Amino acid sequence: MRFGLIRTSHILIAAGAMAAFAGGAAAQSVTYENTVKKIVADRCLVCHGTGSPSLAEFLKDQESWKKKMKGPRMDSYANLAILVNGTDAGAFMRRLDDGKNTKDGKPGNMYAYLGGNDAERAQRLDTMKKWVGNWSLKRRKELSEAELRTITAPEK
User: Fold this and answer.
1) Has residue 90 got a pLDDT over 90?
2) Residue 62: pLDDT above 50?
3) Do residues 95 and 61 share a domain?
4) Which among 58, 65, 71, 99 counts the fewest CB atoms within 10 Å?
5) Rounded to an integer, what distance in angstroms lies between the CA atom of residue 139 and that of residue 87?
6) Domain range for residue 116?
């Protein structure tokens, strides 16, 4: 009898731990607010912050902005979403890709800025891929509506 109670209690403890772990994993899904915002702040806002142009302004005079080391503004979810699944959908993914998704194997021009070493870059790229959902290097005009819907990039 005593062995049965001990065994049952161990099973219940294990089941509870598994449920807590599963619930914690679900609660820790990657969102802009809980994960991506900090990475962008740490790694991107020097060139894509408040002193940067909107995408429309950037496109009017790209060379001038590049000389100033400024790219399209990404200091809010709304500004970043334009490059992820908005009017310039896919731009974010093309710039950050590690080259494993391209024919020539060449990483995007912003991949190096994801971290100080290969391990950091790989980890942050994995995080960004989880956030985006459908990691597509296609341009907005090449994406079907179905593909566009799979680029989730949740805010909260």
Assistant:
1) yes
2) yes
3) yes
4) 99
5) 10
6) 31-149
DSSP string over the chain: -HHHHHHHHHHHHHHHHHHHHHHHHHHT---IIIIIHHHHHHHTHHHHSTTSPPHHHHHHSHHHHHHTT--S--SSHHHHHHHHTSTTTTHHHHHH--STTSSS-PPPTTGGGG-SSHHHHHHHHHHHHHHHBS-----GGGS-HHHHHTB-----
Together in a domain, 21 and 75: no
**Which two three-digit tokens encode residue 142?**
């090449």
Token representation of residue 132: 């985006």
Residue % of the chain over a pLDDT of 90: 81
- List Cα–Cα distances, 142 to 88, 135, 136, in angstroms: 11, 14, 10
pLDDT of residue 101: 83
- What pLDDT was estimated at residue 130? 97
